[in-house]
Amino acid sequence: MIQSMTGYGKTVLQISTKKITIELKSLNSKNLDLNVRIPSYYREKELDIRKNLASALERGKIDFSLYVEITGEDSSSKINKTVVKDYIDQLKDVVNGDPTELLKMAVRLPDAITTERDEIDENEWSAIQAEINNAIDRIKTYRKDEGKTLKKDFENRIATLRDLLNQVIKMDPDRIDGVRTRLEKGIADIKEKVDENRFEQELVYYIEKFDITEEKVRLQNHLEYFIKTLNSDDSNGKKLGFISQEIGREINTTGSKSYDAGIQRLVVEMKDELEKAKEQVLNIL
């Protein structure tokens, strides 16, 4: 089943005097692009968090945020008076404000609050880790739900491409007859006697040059392969992207070889439909 790279997951954990909020956002990207924001107190766990996210989410532009809100007395947290005073002095250089408001601003800035604990409480971290996994599960569910919507869109677009291809297939015999008729008329118009055998050879050459049988067969196969990949167990956006490129190649060749206004009109519609599909493929995991 395909999955979207777009997703969102959020969990909230209350432990002792802290409210821990974990937020995960994901957008499409060619590779894995991780952005992790956590308080400096948990910085030593950043590598573990990155490994966990990379293993679980595989690909996408992923923003991970861990926020901590103190909800009760916590003797381990102290105001860094020197830093706060320095912040207030800097703020005064920027704007003349009420000292209380400046203080409120200063204590929200980095390193205004410090902790005296040297080591992370492992029991506390285990609870946080469990919530990180819950957030990952939620973003995965979001991705799968988005994937179901994208799958329906792809099925509709491939069905449209098949319908357009069938119209090309129906028009093709008349196109070949038209090529033969135009060549014969051209010869008749110049009122020159021609070697019938040579003319037939040239006619076969041009008809073979304009023949799009292989393109029609390959395009049909590519469309079937796209649907087969769409319904496979794994989500492979890159593979769908490669198939889309092959579909586009056959459509382009069909248009360049057809020399027929009706078929070229259908080719334009196919290109438009394919471009919309390719834009959606970029969102697939």
Poorly predicted runs: none
Fraction of helical residues: 55-70%
SSE order, one letter for each helix or strand: EEEHEEHHEHHHHH
Total helices: the number is: 8
- Give the rounded overall mean pLDDT: 87
Major sheet size, sense and barrel closure? 4 strands, mixed
Termini Cα gap: 10 Å
**Beta-strand residue percentage:** 5-15%
> Going across the major beta sheet, what is the strand order?
1-2-4-3
Structural class: alpha+beta
Number of strands: 6
Taking all Cα atoms into account, the compactness measure Rg is 32 Å
Q: Which descriptor suits the 3D outline?
A: elongated
What is this structure, in a nutshell?
This protein has helices at 46-57, 81-94, 99-107, 122-189, 196-210, 213-230, 237-258, 261-281; strands at residues 7-15, 18-27, 32-37, 60-70, 77-79, 113-115. The chain is of the alpha+beta class and 285 residues long. It is elongated and about 105 Å long.
